[in-house]
Design goal:
Length: 89
């Protein structure tokens, strides 16, 4: 195994570890969205007449929270399938 093959193996291994670490970013949005939906249901249960405003605000908040999870997925997919670091070897 020459140096180029060894460097390629190290970059691919590090990219796989980085992709796995990037997918940890999906935990936060999942917890946050679950908490937001639970509080929205609790709020609607207490004041049913405000359900429209609460639901609208909840959907906007969930969309913003989900974007961080999508960014983590995008980074993981880039590292696994369109690895920009392999071309630098």
């Amino acid at each position: 195994m020459d140096n180029n093959e060894m460097a390629r193996a190290i970059v691919l291994g590090a990219s796989a570890l980085g992709a796995g670490t990037a997918m940890v970013a999906g935990i936060g949005p999942g917890i946050g969205e679950g908490f937001a939906v639970g509080k929205a249901c609790e709020s609607i249960g207490r004041q049913p007449e405000s359900s429209g405003a609460v639901t609208r605000t909840m959907f906007i908040g969930c969309a913003v929270a989900e974007s961080t999870g999508i960014y983590g997925l995008l980074v993981a997919l880039l590292l696994m399938f369109a690895n920009p670091f392999i071309g630098k070897l």
